């Protein structure tokens, strides 16, 4: 069901973009869900588990300052398949976010601009399924850039570990109480006994997210519900209010 | 991309023993190619017989069990691996299918190093590679330590049974000539055929038909002769029905497992075209080397000290192979004790014969040969010097002098023989050739009283060695009387136990404030731990003291500990921990000594924790902790603080 919607939406985007002059990375992204079907074994797919750091929490005014991502295939996190870039934001850094991710403005000034970084990221991302914790947040920032550069949002399928954690597939295996807010990454890592190494750098958080997602894949498979469609359904089953902006 | 961004991964890898020998560049090469995998509890990670694994697995957290299982689903555990350990190396290096089942015991996070990168690193760094080739041997050893493994053959010197059995196929070792007789033949006919062809078994089958059964020497003995039946019996009534078969391409190792599992000594070998041969445990034994039983027979046959001494090297080799197989410390100590008892017994009878032959006559009074120290406790490892003595029955003075002279000369011969055989002389002079340790019963009674009266350092040491005595040969009545003397003496002088306990507390286990292992700081034994002095001796000493307290006659440390628990001196938990600790530390010590010996060094007790895997290190710390608890208990039981420092 969801795959059908995604495909329709993708078809529409491609139609809109048909006459535009797009760079190869963007053109490729348009075909991101090509070849994926809901019945596929989710574990076999390539995932890119992502985390971004931003200048602040306001999607309208804040910007990305770092992009960290790590690849997964066959359920294994592949360390060499990673992406990490600092991004020089056009707006001023607020002090609050410096405190969280510890990136000092000086380092950012030396970093490339998002227009430079993003095509590289798209090349890295390829047609992988995107995974993030509270994916809507990351996706909003990414799509802001994506749309401004190429005129359409990312076409990759997206899974949200925060929502997966709430779903019946996974919540029991880590003893989360149902009905509460989606768990924070810290709480999940704690429940899974994962060491929080290098938390609050985008790449460090991406790695922790990947290790949590790894367990989710395993748990889904164990319950005989290891197909891509099952995971997408679980990730969509929204205990939260969905904003049309993010989910289309 | 700049520097490798996953520093914690490098930190972890860098600490895991095989990887710590890598250069920084090699380590980064390994680290950046790592794949992180997660396995829930009970997930089978590798299955025996699967294609060669594509990765080397390093356990980041959790633990796995390594096992083999047969077609009936019986699981034979082989090993447990924990944090920092690795698996899959053997199959990678050999390019062979997985040798074992590997199952997650707890949730496991594993770092997977792709095969290509691993082989490249192994090719480029010999030290790195050696870790894994050693572990291959370790794996195979562990298999043969599995509970169901039969007591079996021993390795050829320097070659290693593991390598041997790994490489040899059943077809290489089997007997190709298979005797067949029809089920209606008489057992006499079968036996005649077997003895003509000098084989130990015959297959029973209809001409051209499948094997119905097998008859072996053992069957003829047990099912025919012992039953009082005659040679006219039909073989079908004496045969073992439904013989087990194995394929000619199977490994000798599998054949042994199969035999052990079904309790048989012969397997029929098939090669797809029918019966190709027959393989017996004996065939494998012959191929692989001597057996402990064979060596024992040779010992019994030895007609001189020289002949016996010549067997010494062979015996140590057999012992080593035995340890490799069983990994059972108690059984190992029993074997060593048995071998040493036999050797001593043989030397004693040789010495007696020599005394007679040289006109010194028979012993003029009853005597008993006393094995003391570790031999008395039946817990010898390979490197132990002599601790022995003699006790003889009191006689009238003129006779007494003659007896004494005779025994003194006799003791000297045995001690010299033991030295030739391979037991170094005791540096403390605790030997039957020494007048102090060759006394009449009343002489010993006086000696014990003197020790109890004056618990000085020297006396405590001697008493400790002596109290572990066991009569190995001669009149057991004398030994019983002596044991009674000690019991009575200690009963009257209980403060003696306090002095013994105080002395036993001199050797504390080497655990630091943070419970880390504290190693020797300098000298030739730097970065090692004296496992005998710091770990085993405290248990042995404490067990002796509490055994005296509990009025036990047994001398073996494990028996003593069990007795002390019954007597209420130890609680069950501490007893269980101590038993494990004792066995584990003894295993470490034996393995170390055999290794030293194999390298041509003199076996000692200095083990290097850095050569152990993480699990072993953890167990060693646990063991030391148990010793600590025991010593606290000892201090409390005997109120050792009441003795002032001298």
Short descriptors:
heterodimer, A: 248 residues, alpha/beta, Nucleotidyltransferase, domain 5, five-stranded mixed β-sheet, 12 helices, disordered C terminus, B: 646 residues, alpha+beta, Jelly Rolls, CBS-domain, four-stranded antiparallel β-sheet, 14% strand, flat
Give a nutshell description of this structure.
Chain A has 12 helices and 5 strands. Chain A is of the alpha/beta class.
Break the fold down into its secondary structure elements and pairings:
The complex is a heterodimer of chains A (248) and B (646).
Chain A: H1 2-17, H2 24-30, E1 47-54, E2 64-73, E3 76-86, H3 95-101, H4 105-109, H5 114-125, E4 129-132, H6 135-150, E5 158-160, H7 161-166, H8 168-171, H9 185-191, H10 202-222, H11 228-236, H12 244-247
Parallel strand pairs in A: 1-4, 4-5
Antiparallel strand pairs in A: 1-2, 2-3
Chain B: H1 7-15, H2 24-32, E1 35-39, E2 44-46, E3 55-61, E4 64-69, E5 75-81, E6 86-87, H3 89-94, E7 101-104, E8 108-114, H4 115-124, H5 126-144, H6 161-167, H7 170-173, E9 180-181, H8 187-197, E10 201-205, E11 211-216, H9 217-225, H10 235-238, E12 240-241, E13 245-247, H11 252-262, E14 266-270, E15 275-280, H12 281-288, H13 292-301, H14 305-326, H15 329-357, E16 367-371, H16 373-376, E17 388-392, H17 397-421, E18 438-440, H18 441-453, H19 457-467, E19 470-474, H20 476-492, H21 495-504, E20 529-530, H22 531-549, H23 557-566, H24 572-598, E21 606-607, H25 614-637
Parallel strand pairs in B: 9-10, 13-14, 17-18
Antiparallel strand pairs in B: 1-8, 2-7, 3-6, 3-8, 4-5, 4-7, 10-11, 11-12, 14-15, 16-17, 16-19, 20-21
Helix pairs in contact in B: 4-5, 13-14, 14-15, 15-17, 18-20, 21-22, 22-23, 22-24, 22-25, 23-24, 24-25
